[in-house]
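ABC transporter ATP-binding protein
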Amino acid sequence: MRLELRGITKRFGAFTANDAIDLVVEPGQIHAILGENGAGKSTLMNVLYGLYTPEEGEIVVDGVPRTFAGPGDAMAAGIGMVHQHFMLVPVFTVAENVVLGQEPMARGLIDAGSAATVVRETAESLGFHIDPNALVGDLPVGVQQRVEIVKALSRKAELLILDEPTAVLTPQETDELIEIMRTLAASGTSILFITHKLREIRAVADTITIIRHGRVVGTAEPTTPETELASLMVGRSVSLGVDRAPAQPGEPGLAVRGLVVRDAHGVPVVDDVSFDVARGEIVAVAGVQGNGQTELVEAILGVTTPEHGSIELAGRPIDGLGVRDRLDAGLAFIPEDRSTDGVVGEFSIVENLVLDRVGAAPVSRGGALDVAYLRRNAAERVAEFDVRTTSIDREVGTLSGGNQQKVVLARELSRDLSVLVASQPTRGVDVGSIEFLHRRIVAERDKGAAVLIVSTELDEVLALGDRIAVMCGGRLVGIVPGGVSRDVLGLMMTGMPPEEAARQAAEHHTLLGEADLAAELQAPDGEPAVVQDGAVVQDAAVVQDASHESEEQR
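Tokens:
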């Protein structure tokens, strides 16, 4: 399919989300759309998929102008879309999801055999296997994404829109998706690839279109350096690295021991997790979303009560304290969903900056809010944290995602703290804001705070973590040094122990010697790894046990 967008303009009141956008996608081309948060990428895709009607411009498919009144029209024209948040029914089988809305019928009933055949034939054409009878809710997220692709292609999609497709994937699953994209393109399927991850764009795209403030500001080749792509996105030079000195760990800041949290069905979602974060260091928790990270953070904050285990803040047990008391004890918290848990969208910047301090001096005096202090505080924080706004009285909900996150960060870092817990601190934030937020988080570490970062962004984990803890299935798989390879981390994110992950990663990097392998590892208790006869084990005791076991077997 050859797709051409001509002068697409979409307005919401006085706001122009897409301003005369021109775009051409050739048959079999992987065309990447790059732009910071709020640049208009999603709006443009929603126009193409029939969810929005543009005020101006036209969509041309294979030389024929088309008008889409809804997604059904787009699908009929051969356009499919895989959303960032999968549109699947968890309690349905793979086959039921794939044919949903277009069910093959036989004698007045759904023909399950025909549905299963559709899944098998489409999946095999891409070189992978999916059980048509498996419940979608039981599948890993990487396989669920494949189901979405099969669903789109089974409906004869000739152009596939992939919206942030790697957001919930491990590095290995991301590599597999890239291979699937290449296979599709080789077979003639056109792909529109929406992502903010520069490395992935350069790995798979044939051409790149950059959008800024609703306009196309340029095109680029995949060989373009990442720093240049980032500069095009935000309109200024951006540093993609995090400039930080080595950590200087000090006294214990946060200690978690044997933590167990169960969900409403009694299933352990945090399963016997223990770790420490020292003052002056950043421990980053890596893992695919949904492996217990959210519940771990909620237990630390006091939102949920663990079944077992203990938590200490600067050497003081806080298990019996509520959220308010934990914050007063020196815990600062950046939630993963700022719109739900971080800000009140209808409140002003002034009000949001003191949400967790109302009722105490200096915010309140004599039982009433000190308005002069509130406005002075807001003006200072807006300047310090570079919040882009026309007024401190502006509703926070009208700010961009990056500026909303800066408001949250400004509130949490503007008081005495000993521990900072930041969950997905840069989710939905543009490259320029990420640079600023990372710099402020490192500054808190250097001032002596213990920092716990939870992120599904592997680049962020590697950029910030002095040590990296990996979670899978609610358990702590292991803790490794910050300089560990992406391959090792990716394998650990599937549940593989650190010693086995390093061994398998080393098979793909045969130039690594035993000393290098050992340096890449650290057991969950913080002890260094040991390498013996080319095999990596967790510690010396394991080496000894393995030796005894082999003698018994002989």
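Confidence is low (pLDDT under 50) at residues 510-554.
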